[in-house]
Amino acid sequence: MQGVVEKVYERVVDRNRGEAEFHQAVREVLESLEPVITKHPSYAEGALLERLVEPERQIIFRVPWVDDAGEVHVQRGFRIEFNSALGPYKGGLRFHPSVNAGIIKFLGFEQIFKNALTAQGIGGGKGGSDFDPHGRSDAEVMRFCQSFMTELARHIGPSTDVPAGDIGVGGREIGYLFGQYKRLRNAYDAGVLTGKGLTWGGSLVRTEATGYGTVLFAQSMLATKGQSLEGKRVAVSGAGNVAIYAIEKAQQLGAAPITFSDSSGYVVDEAGVDLDLLKQVKEVERGRVKDYVDRRPGARLVVDGSVWDVPVDVALPCATQNELDGAAAATLLRGGCAVVAEGANMPSTPEAVAAFQSAGILYAPGKASNAGGVATSALEMEQNAGRTRWDFDTAESKLAAIMSDIHDSCVTAADEYGRPGDYVLGANVAGFTRVADVMIAHGIV
Ligand code: GLU
Q1: Domain shared by 215 and 363, yes or no
Q2: How far is C-alpha 256 from the chain's CA centre?
Q3: pLDDT digits (tens, 9 = 90+) for 399-436
Q4: Which of 114, 122, 166 for a ligand 1 pocket mutation test, highest count of atoms within 8 Å of Cβ?
Q5: One of 90, 105, 126, 196 is an active-site residue; which one?
């Protein structure tokens, strides 16, 4: 990096000490912006870049809650309202012990560009807590969610900030959060949260959307080379909502997903993942991937090593940030992997991204390929505003059209800057210019 872009980056590092993931996310975007600033110096005027990297509002709060044994715990809650140029802040809530300000800032920053790519009029935000729902009873999760929402409610609203799920926040948590919001506000503002249950304002396809969208994006990338997913061996990491529905869509398109993972290890099922069993274990029983192996002859659990050691044609990282490092990228490439589409946010380290790009394979950054989740959240908001409900096929075809548009926007932006096939540059530049043009129109705010 050099010039104005480097100065902006150095200031971010200086003012957000120790927030390594946030620095990483900012660096990746700013690097892509160098050719844009050279071509259009006006984007560096009015401290636009400095404003872009500074959240509009940061909320950090105490979340006390009582466990089933009567012990009091104190968690930290966050909501980073990063950028509202394009619409109300929009982005998920993550409940995981690793959550801190730097993690939420990186996620919120990514969300700005991801949401811009969807072209649906949504700004960028993210929130969460260091609360760990694993092993907690429903009653404990409910009390935590109620305490969390008691503070968060004053900051959000259907035209202000619309949270949703992320790691550790699914339908159960959104239900408890919505119940408390409704009680505090005495208002049935369905559009204040997305990822709601289907009987109280949720949208069909929202559950499937992130995983489905990731696979659709991979399919669009392959189509640029005259290929498809048919017959391809696929490695998926993670075993949450994104991984499960990436596996489902990959199977529907004729590919063979053979792995998934959680913090206890990864599973290889050469016969192809038994999706009904995986859903039973993870969605119904809230179990571990080991429970799948116990019931599935031929599948094996590997507790040391990496899911990326399995030779495949396509890799779909759907677990968490920095789960795929330079060494794993080298192993994947040696095994013949030619397509990587990220279902998680920033799962590949900068070294891994560099390895994929120098090998010239098809590589999609999460802010483009996993945008289907938030895009379908915006479709949920649209249905809530119209007090209507679309059927599955309608919602899915809208998702597919949005993913295809995102893909094409990335391709066009990469071509414009003389870097055909560079989806990192394409996503960052296409997302940035949409936000930047509106920030300029709105003046110095
Ligand atoms: N947490 C998801 C993401 O990373 C979805 C956010 C939303 O639906 O608002 O994009």
Answers
A1: yes
A2: 23
A3: 999 999 999 999 999 999 999 999 999 999 999 999 99
A4: 166
A5: 126
Amino acid (1-letter code) at residue 259: T
Hey, what amino acid is at 330? Answer: A
Residue 196 among the catalytic residues: no
On whether both 68 and 40 belong to a single domain, the answer is no
| Residue 243: closest CA among 221, 271, 219, 267 | 267
Using the atom order of ligand 1, give the atom closest to the CA of residue 195. 8
For 96, the 3-state DSSP assignment is coil
* 235 Rama class: left (phi>0) / alpha (psi -120 to 50) / beta: beta
Same domain, 6 and 78: no
> Ligand 1 centre and the CA of 295: distance in Å?
32
194 CA to middle of ligand 1, Å?
9
Which backbone phi and psi does 324 adopt, to 5 degrees? -130, 105
Residue with tokens 């010039």: 3
Residues 230, 255 contacting (CB under 8 angstroms): yes
CATH number for the domain spanning 362: value is: 3.40.50.720
d(CA 312, CA 258): 9
Q: How many domains does the chain have?
A: 3
Crossing angle, helix 138-152 and helix 171-185, to 10 degrees? 50
pTM value surpassing 0.85: yes
Most ligand 1 atoms within 8 A of CB, residue of 167, 210, 381 to mutate: 210
Domain boundary among 54, 74, 94: 54
Q: Which of 183, 181, 211 is nearest to 196 (CA)?
A: 181
Ligand 1 atom, smallest distance to 111 CA: 10
pLDDT in tens, 6-62: 999 999 999 999 999 999 999 999 999 999 999 999 999 999 999 999 999 999 999
Q: Residue 237 in 3-state DSSP?
A: coil
Q: How far is CA 416 from CA 266, 410, 411, 430, in A?
A: 40, 10, 9, 10
CATH code at position 138: 3.40.50.10860
In a domain? residue 353: yes
- The DSSP string of 256-298 is EE-EEEETTEEEE-TT---HHHHHIIIIIS---HHHHHHTSTT
